[in-house]
């Protein structure tokens, strides 16, 4: 645009010169002289006009060129986003699909990509499907500890009962407010435990309610308010009538880098199924991809899961090499995931095979990330 200003200023200067030329003639020589000079002035003006037109044409063609480049950049951006989403989906679905293949030996070692190798180390047994029961005092004012709660639980549910009902308690965690969190092998086992303590005077057992799942709708035109998205989905897509009464809480929206925005909404399982099944919905001026949104919280300071940087009390750990520095200043070319490295110290103690830790801590193929993903996924009710 520098040249635009330059040409513009030359034209303006010339116009000023012409103007002052006309003024001088009128002042010094009167209108008669001006009339004789008119052809010269007209000639001069037409040259200027011609230059200006040429200049406009050049500007227009440059504008078109910029538009073409912008369009190409946008297409590339969308392609990158699509590939990223595809790669991520492959990682996630791979945990279900690739496993049996690897176990039966169909997939050959040399054909294994990093993602598959990561999947292989995240063995199904490592990925806990959480079936939990929370034990708590019936009366919240009761001044008691989780130890007491657990003792009371044992009086209600003795080991004979566990044996007869084939209930396995896989994990026990003492929690705040005198609560105890028990992990069982299945939902049925959790229900059986709840049933067993239903008559207890002192304690109660509850299965935590699962949350409604979230969808992420991408590529929505920026002019569409998030609260109008559902109305548009219902009106602009076929076979949506039966979902009109469903819950659709658009609780978050964000502009993306390509000038559109995405909206995150908490929806009823029935509607979730429908949206994921159709994969794309018309919203306003565009057809928008729909994805399931499962957010694994990872700290940007220490890279561990489950808390945010602002609440972090751990030391800084490099996302790239796992060292005690910020990834921005990292000079170490070796990749090491601090989470997998930490798991490996445990695995060595237990004489278990190590997992691959030669990847960044923010890699979507990281076995620890996938494990967390499963845990978070398990907190939702997908219907
Ligand atoms: Zn942290
Ligand atoms: Zn580093
Ligand atoms: Zn890792």
UniProtKB/TrEMBL annotation:
Which SMART domains does the protein's record reference?
ZnF_C2HC
Keywords, alphabetical:
Metal-binding, Zinc, Zinc-finger
Tell me one GO molecular function of this protein: nucleic acid binding
Instruction: List, for all copies, the residue spans of the domain called CCHC-type.
Output: 298-314
Q: Which InterPro entries match?
A: Znf_CCHC
According to UniProt, the name of this protein is CCHC-type domain-containing protein
Native source organism of the sequence:
Blomia tropicalis
